[in-house]
């Protein structure tokens, strides 16, 4: 199951807090009849009448809570994919660019690439290497073994040019996505060492991310802001793929409705039944 708007679930926190407070409030009311009622009611009937009085003046906490949970989940728009072997061709694509002029450890860079590929196995991925210029190593493909074969041989000492230009790497990666007419794209720059000089590039429709070692140069956050990219370390890559796949699912949902079962209408129907049940219980008191 996929949630199109998972952030909507944050609304469950205050809702559950209010539900807990209502439950405590009802419990703290105690088995005591209000006013002078105890004088008019026989002792054996007081407990029964007290429960009826509390029930008639307080909401059915569990039913209200269930109704609120169903509504919040419906807002999050859960969907169930019908095809597990989904094809992302012409919909999604990502380019991973290795900055080989940064002086970063090539083995750590390769490990980061492997992690990113494994996190999104069905998404076509291209591999680009960059020094003073940028070069295509692997075109957009879903063949992880093909990417691995070429990833194992890329290294700074086999590059035809020395130097470093992150701006060229970014531009080249954008061109790869543009030539493939990708709808939802992502560019990931795997770098390290000292942060390059900032270069302002206007934001495009492609998501951007910069991956550097944990203890990288302190200027990297400013550089990531300059190119409108998320900054992550080699060991913190999961949310890069998660955010990208979420954007892909939104596009797939609108472009191919038959690939998913939209659960929101069913949840709305369940909410209506709970609403009707709430008022029926109130009338029965």
Separation of the first and last Cα atoms: 39 Å
The succession of helices and strands, N to C, reads EHHHHEEHEEHHEEHEHEH
Any idea what the CATH superfamily of the largest domain is called? Answer: von Willebrand factor, type A domain
The low-pLDDT segments are none
Q: What's the level 1 CATH class of the largest domain?
A: Alpha Beta
Give the spatial strand order of the biggest sheet: 5-4-3-6-7-8
Name the helicity range.
40-55%
- What is the fold named in CATH at topology level of the largest domain? Rossmann fold
Mean pLDDT: 81
Please, how many domains?
2
Number of separate strands: 9
User: In the CATH hierarchy, what is the architecture of the largest domain at level 2?
Assistant: 3-Layer(aba) Sandwich
The number of helical segments is 10
User: What structural class results from the helix and strand content?
Assistant: alpha/beta
Q: How much beta, percentage-wise? A: 15-25%
Task: Give the overall silhouette.
Answer: elongated
Summarize the biggest pleated sheet.
Answer: 6 strands, mixed
Radius of gyration: 28 Å
